[in-house]
TrEMBL record:
Keywords associated with the record: Activator, Cytoplasm, Phosphoprotein, Two-component regulatory system
Summary of the function given for this chain in its UniProt record: Required for high-level post-exponential phase expression of a series of secreted proteins.
InterPro entries noted in UniProt: LytR-like, LytTR_DNA-bd_dom, Sig_transdc_resp-reg_receiver
Pfam families in alphabetical order: LytTR, Response_reg
Residues forming coiled coils: none
Name of this protein: Response regulator transcription factor
GO molecular function, one term: phosphorelay response regulator activity
Residue numbers carrying 4-aspartylphosphate: 61
Domain (Response regulatory) ranges: 3-127
Residue stretches making up the HTH LytTR-type domain: 143-243
Length: 243
């Protein structure tokens, strides 16, 4: 599911934006939440870099008192989240023209001069981003994985399973021919995969189309390439129904 990131260096303005978003999310009941709110663009870059498998909705102040402004931040975000929804918030409408200079695709621009208009625009942006996300091919088309400086696209049907590693926020993807490690969490990955995937254990996310057999006694899944995954007992019935 989509979540929201806010970057605004004015504490009062940031609180105003947060309150508006929280109130709108309660009304909309879309399952969206605020993942990060900060005055530091470096916090945003680090957060997004560690969660490259999911898109976010961004509300970015243009005039950040930092080494980079909000539009430069957006350009950096695009390296890690090319599908994200970027909304610029500014006190100076003329600064929105800079987005063309920096070639940053923005979803919308919100001017801070009218609270009611801000509320309406934020509400519209959240609903539009949510509807676009839900109607997109994110769960049926290729999934995008960032591995180092490379972006690799996988057909979900070609993947056998995902598993956690002993490193924090490191996931291993298993295909029939290879395994690849990348930054992410199973929860984030699960949100962009089709319904054929099931999480039978906290450490595994399995493509049920690629299961060869299930050992109900030993609680082990045997995949078509003879690799194995574990099953937590409480998820066994759910796995059997899914298969």
């Amino acid at each position: 599911m989509l979540d929201i990131i806010i970057c605004e260096d004015n504490n009062y303005q940031r609180k105003v934006i947060e309150d508006i978003i929280i109130n709108q999310l309660k009304k909309l009941n879309l399952g969206i939440s605020i993942a990060l709110t900060t005055d530091n663009p470096d916090d945003v870059i680090k957060y997004v870099e560690d969660r490259r498998v999911k898109p976010f909705i961004y509300f970015l102040d243009v005039e950040l008192k930092s080494e980079i402004n909000g539009i430069e931040l957006a350009k950096k975000i695009r390296k890690y989240d090319p599908m994200g929804y970027i909304v610029f918030v500014t006190s100076h409408a003329e600064l929105t023209l800079l987005t063309f200079e920096y070639k940053v695709q923005a979803m919308d621009y919100i001017v801070k001069n009218d609270l009611n208009k801000m509320e309406n625009k934020i509400n519209e942006c959240i609903k539009e981003a949510y509807n676009d996300y839900k109607s997109s091919s994110v769960k049926t088309g290729p999934i995008q994985i960032n591995v180092g400086n490379k972006v690799i696209y996988f057909n979900p049907d070609d993947i056998l399973f995902f598993e956690t590693t002993d490193k924090n926020h490191r996931i291993r993807i298993h295909t029939k021919d290879e395994t690849i490690e990348f930054h992410g969490t199973l929860k984030e990955i699960e949100e962009v995969l089709p319904d054929s995937y099931y999480k039978p254990h906290r450490s595994y996310l399995v493509n049920t189309k690629k299961i060869k057999c299930i050992d109900k006694k030993e609680l082990i899944i045997h995949m078509i390439n003879n690799e194995t995954c574990y099953i937590a007992l409480r998820y066994l019935n759910g796995l059997l129904k899914k298969c």
